[in-house]
């Protein structure tokens, strides 16, 4: 059973006034947020962050710090909307709030924690927890089966135990350090490794674009804008999760929408990844949080570069500082004995 289907079966505490008033109905979750629709407000969804529930409960982040991070996030959303335009983004706002909770929900939230953390003593009797809550306009197109998710499905570095090391290095030397001239075989490597074979969303999009020129042109616009976004803002788009970015047809034309595209980290991840790579090239050690940031930066960069190439574009997003010498990077060594 997935966490999502378990959570769907856990009833919310009935005796809480927010639950009585809003009658939330669970819609789904990705890696972070529990997403609900609420009675009387058909145009919005409410998303409660499980990362912040854990960080605050364990005392790893104070409420004041979270309040500051929420301000930064709300600014980032403003920046995202200004950059990508209203047509491609969804109105949303974040708040620091107390939300109703139960022991069963907390057990599920802590299962498979990326740092293997466990709930604090006495969590069984908690009725409420603090967290960051997003109120976002509902996107009905998510329920249209014709829509396409632009996502790579899962971080390559989380699967390193099952991936041939030579292939992994080749993936990086092709789509990160730009060392080889790309050929058909490289694109196969991209679709077999970077685009998770379990979800194959990127392959599906390229296949459909072969016979749908309008989709192809919209995909090109998106990819070029993503490159420009990384360069100008120093940030990435969160492209791992299903439906974080969708392509859909409306009034016979294709559009794309960034729904959950800002990364969890509150600072600019592309810029941070460049700095971390530079540190590695200087022979310095990096900690687990830096590894996690770098993993996000690399997956975004490879996805954009591989997809651009699949569309026949020659544009390339560079995550390597121009003064750095490339042959010093052994990506497998950085991520082996891995992150999970
Ligand atoms: N605005 C929306 N309208 C309708 N449904 C939504 C909306 N936002 C999210 N959902 C539903 O909730 C699910 C999870 O949402 P979301 O991607 O925001 O969560 P997440 O945990 O932050 O994801 P990630 O794993 O990318 O961090 C989506 O796949 C979708 O089914
Ligand atoms: Mg998501």
Q: What is the number of independent domains?
A: 2
Q: Beta-sheet strand percentage? A: 15-25%
Task: Specify the overall morphology.
Answer: globular
Estimate the mean pLDDT confidence: 93
SS-derived structural category: alpha+beta
The number of helices is 12
Distance between the termini: 20 Å
Estimate percent helicity: 40-55%
Number of strands: 8
* N to C succession of SSEs: HHEEEHHEHEEHHHHEEHHH
Global Rg = 21 Å
Strand order of the largest sheet: 1-2-3-5-4
Bound ligand species: adenosine-5'-triphosphate, magnesium ion
Low-confidence stretches: none
Word description of this protein:
The protein is an alpha+beta fold. It folds into two domains: 3-138, no CATH class; 142-335, no CATH class. 42% of the residues lie in helices and 16% in strands. It has helices spanning 3-8, 17-22, 50-57, 63-84, 103-110, 165-175, 184-194, 201-210, 213-233, 269-281, 288-310, 331-335; strands at 25-29, 33-38, 41-49, 92-100, 128-137, 148-149, 245-250, 253-258. A five-stranded antiparallel β-sheet has the order 1-2-3-5-4. A hairpin with a 3-residue loop joins β1 (25-29) and β2 (33-38). α6 packs across α7, α7 crosses α11 and α10 crosses α11 (288-310).
